[in-house]
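ARCHIVE ENTRY
Sequence with per-residue tokens
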Amino acid sequence: MANPADQEFLQHAEACMKAILAKLDAFDPDELDADLSAGVLRITFADSRHCILNRQSAAHQIWLAEGASAWHFARDPASGAWCDTKGRGELLQILTGIVSRRLGRTIDLAGGAGGGPQAPGP
């Protein structure tokens, strides 16, 4: 029988990655394309550069890589947030910054159900 902690991690990680994919799917495919398969979420931007989010089951973490930078996130059981193990922020906050920079405009992945692409402000 599988370890209950492993099962819990897999459930939370999968739910997190599916929620991120749903938000990324709201973007114009000319801006970015996102694909989730086997615990790996690959985001491809218009310039053909990638951002990779993947599940690391043995460590009970979600890892994010973009360019030469990498982050490891562990789930905080109290808040449910995926927090960087080096204290650099939460997963959605960091991913929002990456996608905003790549698209050249501010977006909000951390917002509520409709927290996808936003038009630039006035």
